[in-house]
Amino acid sequence: MNTNPHKPTAAFVGASWTALLAGAGAYLFGLWNTDMQLNEKGYYLTLLLYGLFAAVSLQKTVRDKLEGVPVTGLYTALCWFSMAVTITLMAIGLYNAKLALSEKGFYGMAFLLALFATIAIQKNVRDSHAAAATH
After folding, report:
1. Average pLDDT score, the chain
2. What is the pLDDT averaged over residues 79-102?
3. Which end of the chain, C or N, has fewer beta carbons within 10 A?
């Protein structure tokens, strides 16, 4: 168990939420305004949603294991596999997309920023709850 929990600073919490809103917002704004077919838009939207869920689940699983909370090996492997699948499918989709290289970079970076921000937000939530429980 974490014996010295620290509450995250307001600046880090704000930066994490800002990064999520910037990454996911830019990604969705670009997706809304692109000339892709609806099935392509659905593919990229599903990847974002699956990726965000996989990132939160992986962060929780890793944190649970560090804190001694029992987590099955199968679920841990599934979390890692899900993260790998979303990133791989995004890379394959962007590689094959009929988009300008700058657009491919935009979607890739917005996707990764949203995943990173989700992990940071999940960490902030856990740290805030752990700090509140000790006080």
Report:
1. 93
2. 96
3. C
